[in-house]
Specification:
By secondary structure, the protein is of the alpha/beta class. It has a domain of 228 residues: TIM Barrel, CATH 3.20.20.70. Helices cover 27% and strands 17% of the residues. It has a twelve-stranded mixed beta sheet, covered by helices on one side. Strand 2, helix 2 and strand 3 form a beta-alpha-beta unit. Helix 2 runs parallel beside helix 3. The radius of gyration is 19 Å and the shape is globular. It catalyses: GTP + AH2 + S-adenosyl-L-methionine = (8S)-3',8-cyclo-7,8-dihydroguanosine 5'-triphosphate + 5'-deoxyadenosine + L-methionine + A + H(+). It is an enzyme of class 4 (lyase). Monomer and homodimer.
Length: 335
Amino acid sequence: MAQVLTDRFGRIHDYLRISVTDRCNLRCVYCMPEEGMEFEPEERLLSFHEITEVVRVLAGYGVRKLRITGGEPLVRKNLEQLIAMLSAIPGIEDIALTTNAIYFASRAERLREAGLTRINISLDSLRADRFALITRGGDITRVLASIEEAVRVGLDPIKLNVVLMKGINEDEIEDFLRLTIERKLNVRFIEYMPIGHDDQGWKSKYIPLSTVLERCEKQGWVVEAYEQGLRGNGPSQNFRIAGALGTFGLIHPVSDHFCETCNRLRLTADGNIKPCLYWSDEFNVRKVIGDDEALADLFFRALDVKPESHEMAKALLSESQSHTPTERRMSQIGG
């Protein structure tokens, strides 16, 4: 195998997050504004062939794990076709999907057959009215049906992503934890991040994830670190309540960043490599697709400018930062 994708700090990158669209059928409050978003025209999005060519080259440099993101990836037509194309690439071992799951239930079987191995479902509330408010119109019954369908077709593990927001859903922490006691699901609590915000309003909703462990202690639940069987590529610290069927994870990029173990690169829907979620550095791949050596060189150039950390904690404290934060919103990056 060729040289592996390693940055200046010795971090090996074997994981690529691929955004297939910046569009979404919802308007979650932490992801994009209710109106006024300008979306990329379809002709500016990377084609399935272009995405496959990028992954084919990177597989030769050690990329083994992929995650399909958006926007909402299931608004991209014929996504099953892309997953089948990617799963056929030698060296690719794992293809995951991050979705709001509104459209997932009816397509679960086809996606699984195409090569999808895992799924992360965004679910920030278990209460129908609150879920509709957070998502600005989402129907929780469709998400719950998709969870059951993911179980039925054999996706494992099934992870539920919960962005924790002060004054909005922190009173549901125990409800989500009880869900892990009753079901073989992995609930992942995620800190509110300052991605693409043009104001400081996110700070008022930020809550550190130490709160989750404090709630466990208050309930008298015995919590143990748990990694067994949790295939994945991400930065979650995983735990299990004693006797629970499922697990829960904490993803805390602000209060306790995980940059020292970062193994991921991002490819945006409009064809830009993002070495770091938070910073503004980008490298467009369009002109080098078809030239394998030039494409690989571009990814190594991206790794050469990847900073040691993202410094989101400094943003919380309004301290000066060493690089320029991105102005893209989460939906435009792919998370």
